[in-house]
TrEMBL record:
GO molecular function, one term: hydrolase activity
Cross-referenced SUPFAM superfamilies: (Trans)glycosidases
Hydrolase keyword on record: yes
Keywords associated with the record: Hydrolase
Protein known as: Alpha-amylase family glycosyl hydrolase
One Pfam family cited in the UniProt record for this chain: Alpha-amylase
């Protein structure tokens, strides 16, 4: 069979090795745990730390290097942990500090590192600082820790500027002062229960440093920094010139990506450098390569979350462009690239890649069409898993991606994400990608909990996705992930800090790592010839010796 893949390669600029080399986080597979949805050992229908400890054997079997915990600090849960009332304690929903210490110890015994969320942009409105600010009144040092301002208009009845919340609605709420009168307004770029901190106040940085050391001293291996492109606001808080979209913003949005944020990250890095072997990764939602690169300069973040693969369609040119842009963004400053297909804020890839379902009035036809579309979506997600795990750098897997879980279309009454109410019920929010994981059994809650009343309802047909069922099937998505992660580490061909592109048939792509590993993706609807080489792994069976539609292969 003649291959359509020419042997001439087209190089992409490599990223430079980290000083000293060998840092675990430069080629790690990190597994994101959304604690509410991972495993519930307490029986209240909400995942907890004891449940995570109980499943560490599974994570060891999967082969991941580290876990990242979404917030487990004390919180009223207005945004499910991203509204922190005490950053140096564990919320009782998840357990105790002793449970957290046990998780660290047992994970380390299995050679699994533990990283956790930091939420530095804002606090909970039930944080001691915010309570003090409300009681202290205008002009006080307590209010100077936040953004409190008088309103505009004759009686201050209008917000200080026209900023809107990322979750929808205004970004300002007015408080009632001690005399009972309406007074100043405070800024919250997310929910009203999440007042933004004023990072011009030195107390704010000092407190974060104390928090970081509290957890690093307990053995935490690093942090994921929430809204890492936030914190610093445009001087003078000028009005927005363009209307904002819920859950989206641009690089020149005055609410985010202001130059002063980089000094904050240098201060954070200075603390991390006192704890060798630890690393942080920032949630950096910026588009321009030169802007992204600033966050991963040698004295700022170790890693920056790159969301390009989590936002592009299943189309070969778009995927290749996303990879090239991602590598180019970090190569300029010698940083490590990162890759992810989903997280707790993004629609799951199996659903995102599914083709549109044609409209029909026949219920049976509609159900078959939906199943067919989901099958295609899962096939494409499997293919993209091989693309992602073949790339140089650090890979982040969102819990459940390894099971091929789709997004869930929940009923209105089950939605709890603040985006739903804040957007006037026009945006359904992120609950669909946060449904608890199915572990075993034939009906909900599938071993996630002993309580069938889970915090988000689980689909009745998820028995096909359970860990138990997939571990018994060598062709399952879980088995594919296990094989791919093992090969990524065991085969020397997956080495080298760059990718070299092959020419490929229309609608396909192929690249080679310097060590010799080749990844080929067929994003078309017909089988195509494979590149020359010995096959290591395929995401779907070959068709007459050719790469199947919506599939990928590894070769050497």
């Amino acid at each position: 069979m003649t291959s359509d893949y020419p042997t001439e390669v087209l190089p992409v600029p490599p990223f430079a090795a980290q000083p000293g080399g060998g840092d675990w986080w430069t080629d790690a597979v990190v597994y994101q745990i959304y604690p509410r949805s991972f495993s519930d050992l307490g029986g209240d229908g909400i995942g907890d730390l004891a449940g995570i400890v109980d499943k560490l054997g599974y994570l060891e079997l999967l082969g991941v290097d580290a876990i990242w915990l979404s917030p487990v600090m004390r919180s009223p849960m207005a945004d499910h942990g991203y509204d922190v009332s005490d950053p140096r304690d564990i919320d009782p929903t998840f357990g105790t500090l002793a449970d957290f210490d046990a998780l660290i110890a047992e994970a380390h015994d299995r050679d699994i590192r533990v990283t956790m969320d930091l939420v530095p942009n804002h606090t909970s409105d039930q944080h001691a600082w915010f309570s003090a600010a409300l009681g202290a009144g205008p002009g006080s040092p307590e209010r100077a820790r936040y953004h409190f301002l008088p309103g505009r208009g004759e009686t201050g009845e209008l917000p200080p500027n026209n900023w809107t919340s990322v979750f929808g609605g205004p970004a300002w709420s007015r408080v009632r002062e001690a005399d009972g009168e309406l007074g100043e307004w405070y800024l919250h770029l997310f929910a009203p229960e999440q007042p933004d901190l004023n990072w011009d106040n030195p107390e704010v940085m000092a407190d974060l440093e104390t928090t970081m050391r509290f957890w690093l001293d307990r053995g935490v291996d690093g942090f994921r920094i929430d809204v890492a492109h936030g914190m610093a606001k445009a001087p003078g808080l000028p009005d927005m010139t363009e209307p904002a979209v819920v859950l989206k913003h641009t690089d020149d949005d005055p609410r985010f990506n202001n130059e002063a944020v980089h000094e904050i990250h240098r201060r954070i890095r200075a603390v991390m450098d006192q704890y060798p072997g630890t690393a942080n990764v920032g949630e950096v939602w910026v588009d321009a390569n030169d802007q992204f690169a600033k966050y991963v300069r040698p004295d700022e973040l170790h890693l920056g979350f790159n969301f390009r693969l989590a936002t592009v369609d299943f189309e070969s040119t778009a995927i290749r462009d996303a990879i090239e842009e991602s590598l180019a963004a970090v190569s300029a400053v010698g940083a490590t690239p990162t890759w992810t297909l989903s997280n707790h804020d993004v629609e799951r890839e199996a659903s995102r890649y599914a083709p549109p379902v044609p409209a029909t009035d026949n219920d049976d036809d509609a159900l078959r069409a939906e199943e067919n579309a989901l099958g295609i979506g899962i096939a494409r997600a499997r293919a993209m898993a091989l693309v992602e795990l073949a790339l140089p750098g650090t890979v982040f897997l969102y819990n459940g991606a390894e099971l091929g879980l789709p997004n869930v279309e929940l009923p209105d009454e089950a939605l709890v994400d603040p985006v739903w109410e804040r957007s006037g019920r026009t945006q359904r929010g992120r609950d669909g990608c946060r449904v608890p994981l199915p572990w075993e059994g034939e009906e909900p809650p599938f071993g996630f909990s002993t309580n069938p009343d889970t915090w988000l309802p689980m689909p009745a047909d998820w028995d096909r996705f359970t860990v138990e069922k997939q571990l018994e099937d060598i062709y399952s998505t879980l088995s594919l992930y296990r094989q791919a992660i093992e090969l990524r580490y065991d085969r020397p061909e997956f080495s080298g800090p760059r990718v070299d592109w092959y020419g490929a048939p229309d609608g396909c792509l192929a690249f080679r790592r310097p060590g010799g590993a080749i990844c080929a993706l067929n994003a078309t609807q017909t089988p195509v010839p494979l590149p020359h080489g010995e096959i290591l792994l395929v995401s779907l069976p070959l068709v007459d010796g050719m790469l199947a539609p919506n599939s990928a292969a590894w070769l050497v």
